[in-house]
Amino acid sequence: MSNDNKIKIALIFGGQSTEHDISCISAATVAAALSKDKYDITYIGITKEGHWLLVEDPSDLSSETWKDNTKRAIISPDSDHNLIIRDGDDLEVRKIDVAFPVLHGLYGEDGTIQGLFEMAHIPYVGCGHLASAVTMDKLFTKIIVDNIDIEQAKYVGVRAYELSDIEKVADKVEAERVYPMFIKPSCAGSSVGITKAKDRKELIEGLKKAADVDSKILVEETINGREIECAVYGYGDNAFATGVGEIKAAAEFYDFDAKYNNEDSLTIMDPELPEGKVEEIRNKALGIYKACDCFGMARVDFFLENGTNRVVFNEINAIPGHTSISMYPMLMDRAGHKLTDYLDGLIQMAYERHPQKQ
What we know:
Elements: E1 7-14, H1 20-33, E2 39-46, E3 52-55, E4 72-75, E5 82-87, E6 90-95, E7 98-102, H2 112-120, H3 129-136, H4 138-146, E8 155-159, H5 166-176, E9 181-185, E10 195-197, H6 200-211, E11 216-221, E12 225-234, E13 240-248, H7 256-260, E14 266-269, H8 277-291, E15 296-305, E16 311-317, H9 327-334, H10 339-353
Parallel strand pairs: 1-2, 1-7
Antiparallel strand pairs: 2-3, 4-5, 5-6, 8-11, 9-10, 9-11, 12-13, 12-15, 13-14, 15-16
Helix pairs in contact: 5-6
């Protein structure tokens, strides 16, 4: 197949969030699985400083070497589907058929880059700008889930500007929640900036740490239970939920280090759960996915509470990780959907959302 007959994809990775390095690893996984017979791929790495660089060797994706590139690769907001390559004073224009963001966290998973694709009328993989924004924002996700009768941890929302009188904030939180409690930045992924407070001193320290990451903070009751995850794929009436997997964290909770740096953390496929709980989790995952207007893919996380077996919603991720330990591709594979096949499906769905651009 000639390059002219291939679908021209811009695979975008890296980014300015705290999950930059994980995004690079996910992108390497996705790049290796995309058929080079079907797709003509341009790789765009976004540095932590926000510079968009052309990556000419896909083997560089999960290493630091691509950041030494000097060619810039910038998607134009004009509706001509153009990617502008700048090498010093020389300019090259490439057409893009589909954008494939493999970005985690702020400025990639939060609706910002999706808005650029919408402005440029470029079909793109994954959730739209609204779904991306609300699922990235834990506080607003909770507001949505409050309205669909699905149980979740009770919470208090705090704005960073309120911390100018942090003792007053602590009074407010303590009036509504009991220790221990979790403090989370509202818009951060991979459990970055999350702490667990057992007393007022740790609450204040946790609020300050979360405020370093985001301007909105979520303080939640502690749910003691098993951590269960479910993959959802598709859109509308064709969306489906896979079976479930369980996370057994090596630390007190599944923070960034426990997730990526501690080999004792385990992922278990098809864990043994009480009768009916797998189907309950699948149904709730699908309900949350649709309520948040998700499209393409997302991973939905729950707790199965100790002692009660209550299914309690935790969070949803619109661009789930695709590292060697990531749950989403494992769950999809277990459900009979190989990575190469479901990536093809995601690209086809991008066209289905923008049929006039095929």
